[in-house]
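Progress against Task 2.4 (sequence-to-structure conversion) is shown through the following example record, which the project officer requested during the mid-term review.
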Amino acid sequence: QESVFAQTHDCHRFVFRSHTPMKLGLKPGDLVEVFCRMPYGLDNGNERLDNVGERWLLCPCPTLGANRPRVGWSERWLPATIAEGPVSSNGKEPTNERGQAHVQFRWDVHTWFDWASGERLDKGDPAALLDVAPMSRVRPRVGHWNIRQVSLGMEPPMGGLEVNVGGASVAVSFIVFRWGAAKIPIQYDSHSWGRTEGSTVSARFVQLFFNRAVVPRLGWDYEVLTVFIQHSDEFQGISPALLASLCRGRSIVA
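C-alpha cells generated for the chain above:
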C-alpha cells in the first residue's frame, strides 16, 4: 500500500553550506530526524481536493488542526524511524549523494491534518505515516525528542499532543500566514506582484522565497510554522504568545 505522503512530498535538491548529508549505512529500525517539507500547492485557491496527501500539516494539537485558523509546521526537522535503507533513483544501491539516494521511513508524530478540509490522517493505518526523503534531509536522531515508540501495527497513543514532543534547535523560525480557502482563488494585481511570483500569501510566493532566499543561505537550519487564514475575522483568535512558544529558532521572524 502506497503512502499518501510518498505520493507528493517535495524532494527538490539544493546546494548549501550547512548540514553534512548522512552516510548511507542506514537500516530498518534506525532512529533519525528528517526535514519535512509540506508540498506547495500551485493552484492559489483552486486546490485539487481529491488529490490525497498534498496538504498534510503537522499540528501541535488536534484543536489547531481541526478548527480555524489551522496552525502547524509545514517545514521542520521531525523524528522518524527508517523503514527501508537508501535506494538510488535507478533502483540500485547508491555510492554517494549524487546517486540521488532516498530512504523510506515512518514518521513518529501523528497529528497530521489536511489544512483545507480539517481531515485528520488515519493514524490506525500502518502505511499512512510512511514517507520518502533524499539523504540530504536525513540525519541521526539526538536527544531533544520526547517520543513514545509504537510497535508496527499498534494504535498510537490517544491525544497526540505534538507540542510536547520537543524539537530541534534551528537558526530561524519563520511564522508564515497563508491563504487558507482551498476553493477561492487568490485575487491580486499581477502588474504589481508579478505573474510568476504571486502575492505574499500565495503558495507560489512562499515557495520561491524559501527555495531561492532561505535554503541556499541556511540549508535546513530553519523551521516554518504556518497559519492558514480564510477570513480576516480569524486573526482575532490568534495568540502571538502561543505561536512564539511553539518555535525552536534562535531568531523568530513573522
